[in-house]
């Protein structure tokens, strides 16, 4: 990294609007202790995971030389046009206007989300955005097929898997992550995270105090990931998130005792969603509001044990506003 002379003029660019895996049209900088430090060179590509990690950690802006700002503007509008054309090709020309509107709304929304504090109004918008995204995603034939695979887990586990998928996508959006490939992979990881449990024999599952049970449980994230590796077309980030869904921020999770940033951001979000829904299940006989409040409290009082404390504040506010009967 090269420290730049601060006499040069810099302008900020929203990280939420950066496009992964596209050569940067100019150098980009981070502002560290009041100094602009070069982060990537012109022509480098930003990894989707890096962009999402920045967003998850509430780093909202990156800097470019003011003279280069226009080049980023051109890139954004070219990419925007490409996503409109891609979508029009998929659903047909008559829908062009609707698609343009949808994409405009999406861009605006993620800009809002990366810049503004959460409020009841924008959390409600996000809830419906995540619902729309999921409605569309789950009608894709390859995703519908994977949802079908879940049936081997039994009805309760299927409900749990789907709920975790819904919560995880909502939480990622709360963090300003609008990249549809990331959201799609997160959804897959979320619905398939416990698929390895289907391989545990019923007699082992019925004896939670046995050694065989403990071993099987410790091993299920690895089993889930290895089942998924055999299915064509699933991205590597999904295996990693599935394998990491019981890793804890403090290193006391399983199966690999990973800690801190050794755990992928996708696994971290999946882990919060998984625990959240498990608490809802434990409290399913209580009124819905009460169950949500207990789940929120659990996440809120974690204090860096299971969850990454850097990603939590916005997630907790999002959960409170969406499900906890809080208003702002
Ligand atoms: Fe699990």
Secondary-structure element sequence? Answer: EEEHEHHHHHHHHHHHH
* Low-confidence regions: 1-5
Which ions and ligands are bound to the chains?
fe (ii) ion
Describe the oligomeric state of these chains in a short phrase.
Answer: single chain
**Helix run count:** 13
Number of strands: 4
Number of domains: 2
The proportion of residues forming helix, as a percent range, comes to 55-70%
- Structural class category: mainly alpha
Name the average pLDDT.
87
CATH class of the largest domain: Mainly Alpha
* CATH superfamily placement of the largest domain: Hypothetical protein af1432
- Name the CATH architecture of the largest domain: Orthogonal Bundle
**What is the CATH T-level topology of the largest domain?**
Hypothetical protein af1432
CA-atom Rg in angstroms: 21 Å
Largest sheet: 2 strands, antiparallel
């Amino acid at each position: 990294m090269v420290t730049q002379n601060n006499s040069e003029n810099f302008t900020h660019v929203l990280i939420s609007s950066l496009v992964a895996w596209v050569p940067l049209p100019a150098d980009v900088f981070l502002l560290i202790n009041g100094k602009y430090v070069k982060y990537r060179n012109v022509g480098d590509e930003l990894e989707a995971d890096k962009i999402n990690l920045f967003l998850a950690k509430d780093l909202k802006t990156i800097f470019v030389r003011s003279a280069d700002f226009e080049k980023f503007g051109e890139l954004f509008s070219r990419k925007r046009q490409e996503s409109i054309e891609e979508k029009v090709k998929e659903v047909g020309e008559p829908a062009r206007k609707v698609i343009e509107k949808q994409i405009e709304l999406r861009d605006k929304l993620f800009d809002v989300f990366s810049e503004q504090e959460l409020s009841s109004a924008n959390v409600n918008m996000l809830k419906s955005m995540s619902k729309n995204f999921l409605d569309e995603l789950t009608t894709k034939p390859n995703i519908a097929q994977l949802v079908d695979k879940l049936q081997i887990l039994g009805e309760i586990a299927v409900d749990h898997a789907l709920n975790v998928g819904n919560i995880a996508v909502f939480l990622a959006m709360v963090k300003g992550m609008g990249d549809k490939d990331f959201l799609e992979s997160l959804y897959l990881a979320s619905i398939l995270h416990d698929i390895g449990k289907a391989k545990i024999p019923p007699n082992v599952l019925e004896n939670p105090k046995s050694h065989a049970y403990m071993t099987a449980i410790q091993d299920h994230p690895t089993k889930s990931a290895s089942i998924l590796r055999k299915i064509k077309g699933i991205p590597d980030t999904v295996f990693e998130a599935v394998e990491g869904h019981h890793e804890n921020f403090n290193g006391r999770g399983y199966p690999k005792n990973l800690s801190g940033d050794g755990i992928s951001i996708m696994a971290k979000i999946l882990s919060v969603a998984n625990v959240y829904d498990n608490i809802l299940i434990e409290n399913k006989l209580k009124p819905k509001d009460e169950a949500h409040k207990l789940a929120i409290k659990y996440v809120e009082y974690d204090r860096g044990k299971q969850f990454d404390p850097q990603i939590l504040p916005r997630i907790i506010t999002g959960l409170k506003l969406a499900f906890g009967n809080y208003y702002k």
